[in-house]
Amino acid sequence: MSGERQITSMSGNKMAGIQCWLGDGQSDQIRIGHSFTVTSERAFEPHEHLFKINDMQSHIYQVLSGVVGVYNMLPDGRRQIVTFYYPGDLIGIEESESWRYHGEVLCRSRVRSIPITIIDRLLETEPGFGQAMLETLATELAEIREQLLSLGQKSAIEKVATFLLRISRRNLREGGNQHSLYLPMTRSEIGDYLGLTIETVSRNISKLKTSGLIHVLNKNTVQILDLPKLEELADGNS
Amino acid sequence: MSGERQITSMSGNKMAGIQCWLGDGQSDQIRIGHSFTVTSERAFEPHEHLFKINDMQSHIYQVLSGVVGVYNMLPDGRRQIVTFYYPGDLIGIEESESWRYHGEVLCRSRVRSIPITIIDRLLETEPGFGQAMLETLATELAEIREQLLSLGQKSAIEKVATFLLRISRRNLREGGNQHSLYLPMTRSEIGDYLGLTIETVSRNISKLKTSGLIHVLNKNTVQILDLPKLEELADGNS
DNA sequence: CGGGTTTTTGAATTTTATCAATGGCTGTGG
DNA sequence: CCACAGCCATTGATAAAATTCAAAAACCCG
Fold first, then answer.
1. Which residues, listed in sequence order, are joined to residue A215 by a DSSP beta bridge?
2. Which of B58, B81, B95, B141 to mutate to test the interface with A (most CBs of A within 10 A)?
């Protein structure tokens, strides 16, 4: 709690931020002072909900494996997926009384639940924990602003390129392969994330394939063949 | 810092949140413990920048009068306005080392600058201040998620209706007139906020006018004639 | 291997953007 | 006080992009 205030959790080591206290999912224990609290893990099947909008929020969630999608809906069924959460990510740390969106497991996943009472306790007793939460929220805000630019200004093919690059960059950050991407979600979910129909997503993935920027191994696996060109495309320098 | 954790700053009284410490702009003083710090105010002309992307962040800003737009750009000039900030609003409380977006004054405005060193001090010394910041960020996150739904899923006319309702609801919250809206920004700025061109914005405002949902007094003043129908339209129950 | 689901591709339609011109407001100077 | 210049905003016609509807192909699981 000194003069340090740069927000760097976007980059590299996740244990630098809030994960210091909550863990990165390797252990199911949380230390508060000298006592340990055991949190609960559970497996979820595709399309199971962790929570629905307006449910009371009693826990925050940490994805251990798989992917969770968080979304809002219009009354007629149109859906906007706000964020895909991957292993290590925390859902709901902004804590309101009730959930402001739906949280759905998109593929077979393991998820850890952490009671918000524990978060409260950490806030009270652990110096620096509040600051870490602020940084995590700031990072989330920055990422959503990126997504706003994509949704508001980019063409379909630019959106798809941007989406692939996001996964590529995440891979890099997590020590994975920058060029080999695993897409656990369906085309329809990608569409609901990018503000496009399933057909438009498919067509533009095909276009990227035809122009030699990517190779589609199978529907869940894409390889980036020309990263610089993909980046140019994503930034609108078509 | 007790068990209180519901986030209610969205509703009603602004002094309930972070404004407790920073003020709502009526006074230019900030109290830290028993000492007072005077912050600086300044008038800005349209199109002046408070900061540009990648500038070091030394201050946060509070709008006193007028409007400030915060935006990101693509290299080719396409612009996405992320948020319009109105009097009382704080810009930059998520504090990163450098700004992640541009901040431009959209009409003649008065803005107060608060050094981030003061925020640091408040975080260290004032119990509850960190919690208030978390709540403010959470509110901002929730509003941007709303905007994601609009940008990703709504049609042009639904976007315009949603935009007008946002201003109406803000008016209501601030004790103003729910039906009489002042639009300090240009059509072009509204377009860059909604992911539409200036012509599409104009056309759809005209459509709302023709269908009798609104009355356009002059280009900066709109009156809502049929609030329920406008709300239906904004929610996609066209 | 087969059935159901997801994805891809194609054709027609709708929506929005683009290009072009007109209209209207505002503020200034004669 | 009126006329005019400059800037926005509106409206119209056309073009481009994305959606919708429809069908075929590929994939996955048992």
1. A223
2. B141
Interatomic CA–C1' length for residue A200 and nucleotide D24, angstroms: 17
Set of chain B residues whose Cβ sits within 8 Å of the Cβ of A102: none
Find, among A116, A136, A111, A120, the residue nearest to A20 by Cα.
Answer: A136
Residue of B153, B106, B163, B126 lying closest to B20 (CA atoms):
B126
Provide the shortest C-alpha distance from residue A97 to chain B (in Å).
5
User: Mean of the pLDDT values across residues A214-238?
Assistant: 94
Fold exhibited by the domain B14-147:
Jelly Rolls (2.60.120)
- pLDDT single digits (tens) B135-145: 999 999 999 99
Distance of alpha carbon B102 from the chain centroid: 14
Q: What is the maximal distance between C-alpha atoms in chain A? A: 59
Distances (CA, A) of A188 to A73, A209, B90, B189: 14, 19, 37, 32
pTM of the model: 0.92
CATH assignment, B154-234: 1.10.10.10
- Measuring from the CA of residue B190 to each C1', which nucleotide is nearest? D9
Asked whether the predicted pLDDT for residue B3 surpasses 70, the reply is: no
Q: Give how far B160 is from chain A: nearest CA, Å.
A: 14
Strand C: which positions are within 7 A of a protein CB? 6-11, 15-20, 25-26
Cα(B159)–Cα(A53) distance, integer angstroms: 22
CA proximity to B117, closest of B108, B109, B125: B125
Residue count of chain B = 238
Give the phi and the psi of residue B73 in degrees, each rounded to 5: -135, 155
Token digits of residue B37: 């710090």
**Measured between alpha carbons, how far is B190 from A155 in angstroms, rounded to an integer?**
19
Report domain extents, chain A: 14-147, 154-234
Whether the CB-CB separation of A71 and A192 falls below 8 Å is answered with yes
Say how many C-beta atoms besides its own lie within 10 A of residue A178's C-beta. Answer: 15
Distance of alpha carbon A145 from alpha carbon B140, whole angstroms: 11
Alpha-carbon gap, residue B172 to B177, rounded angstroms = 6
Mind listing the pLDDT tens digit for each residue in A33-72? 777 777 899 999 999 999 999 999 999 999 999 999 999 9
The DSSP-derived string for B100-113 is SSEEEE-SSEEEEE
